[in-house]
Each structure stands twice: as structure tokens, then as C-alpha cells.
Backbone:
């Protein structure tokens, strides 16, 4: 019962490098999300998707791109990494319906030097 | 997003009761969630409220007042393992995403 799986778990990048974080869920959820969590800032929504082929901007989308080509996968891309993007990134998924909770992955710790 | 306010830190004694408050903007309210997050781990779902009143789940209860834009999480018979961050989150106007508060770090002491 995997739930939401994020890869990689840890990564160190140099400023200007690019990378993609992968999120996969096996619960057949329609909605998927990418958050970042920084000390004292709480969880902030980067982008989200309400179905295969759709994406939308959240609270802090600048510097990130996303794609949802398959229902079970939601990819977060950093085209040119900056030190300000050093953070812990969480992916989440849920079913539609107001009372449906979000299920989170274990997070990706990303450091940009 | 919605402004969600909760205290930054709280300390309580093992075996005691603690109440963690959360206030939110009432316009476009669609429901309120509480999550628990231990250090270095993912948030896990605790409770959901959309109607006024108290929802009880074992040692944890959550209360909502829609007219006041106010919720609280009540933890009874505190255990050391309850030391964690507690996140209040309101479902956005669109119903798609959760907007999280900054979390309340609870320390349970012997």
C-alpha cells in the first residue's frame, strides 16, 4: 500500500542546474498538489492539478513548472535552480469532495548551493 | 489565499489537556482540516469539520464555529508522542486546494 511516493528523497544542486521531482500515487486520486515547506512559513502551495492534462498555479508558482501527463504522476520541474528554492517539497493527492483529506508523500529535501 | 492564524508554539505536560486554536477568513468557507506533522515526516490527517460543533476521535477532538471563523483542536491525556506540529488548513473557495496555517509546534514535557 504505497500511497504517495516521491523521488528523489534528497538532492543537492548547484545554482542554475535543472531537475525534476516525481510524485506518483496509486490511489486513483483526481487531484494532486505540490507544496514547499520552509521554517516559519508553513506549507505553501506551488501548483496543483485537478485532473490528467490540467495544471493550475498556487500561491508561490514562480520558478517552477509542472506536468500531469498521466493521472497517477505529477512532476515538478525547476528550470534554473536558485538558493531561494532550498526547501522541503511535499506532494499530496486527494479525491474530489470537500471532506476528502489530502494524503502526503514523505517529502523531498532539496538544497541549492 | 485565506488568512489562517494559529499560535506558533505551545507547551503542555504529559497527561494534561491542551487546546490549539485556529482562526480563518469566513468568506468562501468550504471546510477545515487539522493535520499532525512530526519532525522530518509528512503531515497526516487528523480531522475535518464543515458544520458547527465538536467532532470527537478518541483522544483528539476538533471544534468549529463558522460564524466566528474559529476552530480548535483538543488533545486529551497528552502523551510524549504527541509532541509535533499541528497544522490548521481551510479548503479554498474553489474547493480544490487546502490553504495551510504556519502550524503550532507542541512540546509535551514529562
Residues:
Amino acid at each position: 500500500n504505497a500511497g504517495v511516493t516521491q523521488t528523489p528523497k534528497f538532492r543537492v544542486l548547484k545554482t542554475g542546474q535543472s531537475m525534476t521531482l516525481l510524485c506518483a500515487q496509486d490511489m486513483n486520486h483526481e487531484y494532486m498538489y505540490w507544496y514547499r515547506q520552509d521554517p516559519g512559513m508553513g506549507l505553501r502551495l506551488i501548483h496543483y492539478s485537478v485532473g490528467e492534462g490540467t495544471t493550475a498555479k498556487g500561491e508561490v508558482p514562480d520558478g517552477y513548472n509542472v506536468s500531469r501527463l498521466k493521472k497517477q504522476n505529477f512532476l515538478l520541474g525547476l528550470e534554473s535552480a536558485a538558493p531561494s528554492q532550498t526547501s522541503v517539497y511535499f506532494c499530496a493527492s486527494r479525491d474530489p469532495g470537500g471532506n476528502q483529506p489530502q494524503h502526503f508523500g514523505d517529502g523531498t529535501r532539496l538544497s541549492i548551493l | 489565499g485565506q488568512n489562517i492564524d494559529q499560535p506558533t508554539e505551545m507547551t503542555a505536560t504529559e497527561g494534561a489537556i491542551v487546546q490549539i486554536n485556529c482562526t480563518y477568513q469566513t468568506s468562501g468557507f468550504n471546510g477545515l482540516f487539522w493535520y499532525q506533522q512530526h519532525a522530518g515526516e509528512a503531515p497526516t490527517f487528523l480531522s475535518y469539520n464543515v458544520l458547527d460543533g465538536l467532532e470527537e476521535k478518541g483522544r483528539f477532538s476538533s471544534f468549529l464555529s463558522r460564524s466566528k471563523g474559529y476552530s480548535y483542536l483538543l488533545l486529551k491525556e497528552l502523551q510524549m508522542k504527541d509532541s509535533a506540529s499541528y497544522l490548521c488548513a481551510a479548503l479554498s473557495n474553489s474547493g480544490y486546494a487546502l490553504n495551510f496555517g504556519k502550524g503550532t509546534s507542541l512540546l509535551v514535557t514529562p
